[in-house]
Design a protein that fits this description.
Four copies of one chain form a homotetramer. In chain A, a hairpin with a 3-residue loop joins strand 3 and strand 4. The first copy, chain A, is 22% helix and 36% strand. In chain A, strands 1-3-4-5-2 form a five-stranded antiparallel β-sheet. The interface between A and C is medium-sized, with 21 and 21 residues.
Chain lengths: 152, 152, 152, 152
């Protein structure tokens, strides 16, 4: 992952759009993209060797969202396959700022040129490492911090 | 409430259908009626003088769902006003079985005769009083049990 | 509403936090505040005499979210009563930018001084009026626009 | 799949429990298992060569849930890996009755013996093939019916 740069996301997951994600406008409900963003962040932390529940139980640490924003460019629809990625854009002692995106990689939507990909939603998410019991900010554990630094 | 009987629900709440509740089929997503059922149960317990969080913190008690079923007769749609009610049908030492319903009381749906009401979903829900820390069944607190008995 | 100004929200609703809104961190899940924001916007449009479904069916119009951001200051918890409000901060031909807030007005949370209120989440939401069938921006209907102008 | 029988599910998917799925009781929220059941049914239909959106758009057909019940035996928790399966138990002209289960295959939960699996939730779901535009029951398309018959 050391070679990653600003144009290349550090981590991504693929997911499918189900009925539960959509609304009666025929598209994915706008709040649900924040769920997709978090699934990606959770799998990213796990890929570094630690689950969120292990972090909470063993280290009394939790990553909480301090700020989140989303720009909605195009709607996702039922049955679409979406790629959700993230890229660290700022790394502090206890704070991490991430750029996240939702990209359609396959879908029934005719707008999508065959083989092409379309950025549907762009996100900017700031997470903070806090003591699980008090919600007070604490330093990101050294191992994570070092690993994150490599991917900035 | 003492006069309530099988044909008259003990407790009800009204709620509005928002985009978040619907899916791309244009109707309320089937799992979300279980959320509506629980909002009703929660307000019912509160109406008896106790919040779920007070129960958990002060008494280490929680009501968990052991079994739930729903019959879907007609769909609810965006902007509908729904009435959700409940009726105790069995009361044990630690178990309560409830009949629950979702009734449309106002809606844009043309099927609904002016002034009429329509049962959309019928539910049958069994809840059990458990120790919050262990999830083991315990007796429903005496005060609640006495109050519940009056409404069976 | 003509007298409203920047420090006074144009519209607000109150809502209760249920189990469905929380997560295993013991607080309201971060994406769900966007649901709360939308419930407020929907009731606001309704308070002006028009439901979202009527807008869609009669006028082929829908308000979609183009951009949303949320600053999370303090967590809301189970059983809290929250006030969600909105204030127009920019009004364009087809765009509206709103400041939204989630304020705790009653809760079991000991941090909340008796009688006091606490801003938990601040939001900034841009919505656009689009043709329901094409998702292309169109002018906000004249009646709405005039009413909105009074509340800016 | 022809060899499948009552003790062997016809189809299954694996999924991870995220924060969005849990509630402040520290476990998966009871309504969300119905979402898991549906993800499984959707992938099953897709595995037979047809997406739900293609069914709706090309054939004006939709599978709707007529009845669903769930027995909750043990709770799932954050980070658990769950297997969701289904088995046809009745096949009619337009109706299908399915047994569904949620099984924990990996988790942080200490109850789970190493290498063992634990049935958390059992479901019984009746779906009906309806005209998407009218919600009236219609015969399941011949191709699907024949395929389903093999797996009963």
């Amino acid at each position: 992952m050391k070679e990653s740069n600003c144009t290349q996301p550090s981590f991504s997951i693929d997911l499918r759009v189900y009925y539960e994600d959509t609304d009666s406008g025929g598209v994915v409900y706008y709040a649900n993209y924040l769920k997709f963003f978090e699934r990606c962040r959770t799998e990213w932390v796990r890929s570094l060797g630690c689950s969120q529940s292990a972090l909470a139980e063993t280290h009394d640490l939790v990553f909480v969202v301090r700020r989140a924003s989303a720009d909605y460019y195009k709607p996702a629809r039922l049955d679409d396959v979406l790629r959700v990625d993230l890229q660290i854009i700022e790394l502090g002692r206890s704070r991490i700022r991430l750029a996240q995106r939702v990209v359609r990689v396959d879908g029934v939507n005719s707008e999508l040129p065959s083989g092409g990909e379309s950025v549907l939603v762009g996100g900017d998410v700031e997470i903070v490492c806090v003591r699980a019991s008090t919600f007070k900010p604490v330093a990101i554990p050294a191992f994570f911090h070092a690993t994150f630094q490599e991917t900035v």
